[in-house]
Amino acid sequence: MVSADALPRRTELLERLGVPAWHAQGWKGQGVKVAVLDSGFHGYQAHLGTALPANVQVCSFRFDGNLEAKDSQHGILCAEIIHALAPEAELLLANWEPECPDQFLAAVRWARQQGARILSCSLIMPSWSDGEGHGRIHEELTHLLAPLHPSQDGEGKGEAGDALFFASAGNTAQRHWSGPFEDGGHGYHVWRDAAGIVHRENVIHPWGSERVSVELCCPSTAGYEVIVSDAATEKIVVRAQSMNGCGTGNAVAAFLPEPGHVYQVQVRRRPPLFAPQAGGEKGEFHLVVLGGSLRYFRSEGSIPFPGDGSEVIAVGAVDAAGRRLAYSSCGPRHGRAKPDLVAMVPFPSRWRARPFAGTSAAAPQAGALAALLWSRHTDWNAQQIRAALQNAAQPCPVNSPAWETGYGLLHLPPPD
Known about the structure:
By secondary structure, the protein is α/β, with parallel strands linked by helices. The chain is built from nine helices and 19 strands. 48% of the residues are buried.
């Protein structure tokens, strides 16, 4: 059952975003297509005409072609936010085969071919880049966001304008480590805690019985091995070597945890036999844990793919006071602003009592505001929409640096 205060809280959120003034003047996302890329659309048809538009366009890029294969409503919740803020925008829903970046790109390509100018993705795939926004997948995504010409769309639909891609910043700020490899002896990296004490192992606490994935990202010239063992017995559970894929180096060590067990991860520089090229001994790397916590972590630089790319607008999460939530992933202390923007969460749902939280609920808010802007300024390009969102963003508290909150809190400019 939906909580009694869900709608009042939703109204307050819309007011904080500056949405009511745009709705009052009739700008509700009409003429704009928004694609939601996700894995959780189970039971979406039951929400058509209420939390979702009466009609949506769908396509699955899983090998089994099943949009509802995963028992999750994550994508429905993302789409609900877009529909609440931009009720006349047309929605497209798509999923893809897990761990297959080319199927992800196929989903993006399909959405663009259907005319989508806004894409929203609240899933993260850390090992699809080097953690710094580089690699083949980022390059191809940039190409797909450019204006489409008849030769690209394959259906003779004529030229389509450029597009914006919004992504959740990720909830991995407390489950991430990055920095240069520091050899503590015998080629094993050492982790430094807050007091500067070094540890050869980093402890992982699984959240439950579901799959835990330890993912390392690095430049393609670096060579590392990820070793996960049981903390009590020191028995190795899984190990993986970084491989050159998609123009980056990555290693994924996944395992099913045993009840009550605690694990530890080590990172080792690969021996020359496996990594003859230079760069591995001094290269930097990112390590992220999905499905568990990490004892020694660094929030800086924790935004994973796709939000780490310069072509992507990454959206972080803040509380009602505008403070970054501890789990919300951050960008580097130096360089471009990441996340680009932040949004207040949680967002109340019309069909479940628990509101939608995390950076997953932040990205679709930004995508919806872009739809409102584009419905009013149909002649604007993607850069103009992006600049309008950045310029209208409201400042966060003084103690929030750009690497935590980017340009600031999402807010629409006054409608003209």
